[in-house]
Structures are given as C-alpha cells and as structure tokens.
Amino acid sequence: MILPAYTIRFSSQIVQHLQTAIDYYDELSPGLGETFLTEFEIQIWAISQNPHSRAVRYDDVRFALISRFHHAIHYYIREQQKEAVAFALFSTYTDPKTHWKKPE
After folding, report:
1. Residue 61, SS3?
2. I want to staple 87 with a disulfide (CB 3.0 to 4.6 A). Which of 10, 11, 58, 71 is the partner?
3. Which fold is adopted by the domain 7-99?
4. pLDDT averaged over the chain?
C-alpha cells in the first residue's frame, strides 16, 4: 500500500535550529552548511513520503536521522490533517532529559 504524501509543517524553533546548524558547519568548513542543508532536505522529503517509517521514540515523536552530521529531526504526525510537524533539530549528542520534549 502506498501512503499519500504528507504536508510538512515547520515550527519556528526548528527553523532557528536549522540556521544555527548551517552556520556552525559553515564555520568548520565553507560550504559544509550547504551540504548539511541538502541532507536535511533529503530527510524532510522522506518524511513527507512516509512519515510512519520511523519508530516512535517518545510522546508520539519520531526521529529522522541525519547520520552523517549526527543530528535528528524530531517530528510528530497529525493524521487528520495529513501532515508531519517538524519541531526540533538536535544533535544526537544533546542531553535528551533537558531538550527532548514534544511542544504543547
């Protein structure tokens, strides 16, 4: 069975996290931020095609890993609206007890 494509909604928080990560990688090496953005976009496209492909990790939240860069897109699914809400982008080194929680 092929699932319909889902709309992706971005929180303002994830937009800030994304820009911070891009800036960080560009400081390490010019152009690396663009590579990170491309990897992020690949994962967002994959989420839109099949958001259920990732396991629930906590509070109905799923991760899409950007493994080359050790980051995870945190998102949840709003089935009625056929959308996935991407609300956070965290390094996999981030302490989950202080940062990982689904927005209210």
Report:
1. strand
2. 11
3. YaeB-like fold (3.30.2310)
4. 89
Phi-psi label, residue 70: left if phi above 0, alpha if psi -120 to 50, beta otherwise = left
Question: In this predicted model, what pLDDT tens digit does every residue of 36-81 receive, in sequence order?
Answer: 999 999 999 999 999 999 999 988 999 999 989 999 999 999 999 9
C-beta separation of 71 from 88 below 8 A? no
Q: Are 84 and 6 in contact (CB under 8 A)?
A: yes
Counting beta carbons within 10 angstroms of the beta carbon of residue 10, is it exposed (0 to 12), middle (13 to 18) or buried (19 or more)? Answer: middle
Report the DSSP pairing between strands 83-91 and 7-10.
parallel
Compute the residue count for the chain: 104
